[in-house]
TrEMBL record:
It comes from Gilliamella intestini. This is Uncharacterized protein.
Amino acid sequence: MKHSFYIGIVFSLVSAYCYSQPFDIEEKYRGDPYFSKVNMQKLEKDCTLPLDYEDLDAAKQAKIKKRCQLYNFSSYFHNVYDLIDKTTVIYQKNDLMLALNKETFSFTQEDAIFSGFKLTLSLNKNNETKDAIILANDFMNRTSLLSVGYQYYYIAPSGDIYTLSLIEMDDGIGPQRWRHYKIDEKNLKFHLVQMYDRHYQVSYPDNFTILPDPDRIKYYEKGQFERCLKDESEDFCYVDDVYLYYLEQLNQKTAQLAEQTHTTKNLFFPFKKKRDKLCLSKNVLLNDNKLVPYLNEIIVCEIKQLKQEIKRVEKELAKEY
């Protein structure tokens, strides 16, 4: 089963959780508020270098890079790394503590060796770590030396935490994933409130969206897509295409039902909210290494529910009013 990707627009959202006092953290450890609300589509456009970039003179190159705000943050975050002496407590209230931990890391992926360093934010109670997230990182492909990865962050006084991961290559900087967490002092957790992974947008507990990929050319041989509609697990199927097809089918049929029953109510979005909440509640993201199967399970659940809803609406359409 294939997956297509697209980078969507990111908006900040107010969490449904209840939290306590503001987090008084020194400015030098907070990161940058720019990352609390990022327009991913604009970033992708502004930070992609033209094909003839290397042939341009220095003035034109500087003008192009000036459009991309992501080039402005590297020195700031290197200063943050330099401030951290392995483990640094940045917030403490009674026996509750937030600490930044700096460490080096390396991993191998598809015969390429990556290495770098990262900052982990830990939530501690009575000197025991209750939860932790990767707050920032900086790494390089040591095999090819062709790509560099970063993750930047911002910790708001409200306890909202925002991270944005990036990949820099010869053609510019590509935003990869934006996340929004809330610090839950009561349950001692970093709650993931929103996750926008390229063209997948998740806002917990009841909003799942896939944005169409305008750059991907949809190509199926004769009869293949019809087979995908029956079984989206076929190797040549893009499961996103199947989801978007049934989503549009339901949208059209609920509009027909509203017209037929002479109602002004929007019948589509209540179904969507209920469906999204069900599928998001049935699947749990354990870690980033499980992200692809996690999203796949949600989409498969969504497709199953969409098919059922379409059948139900079709039965309603068959009635005489």
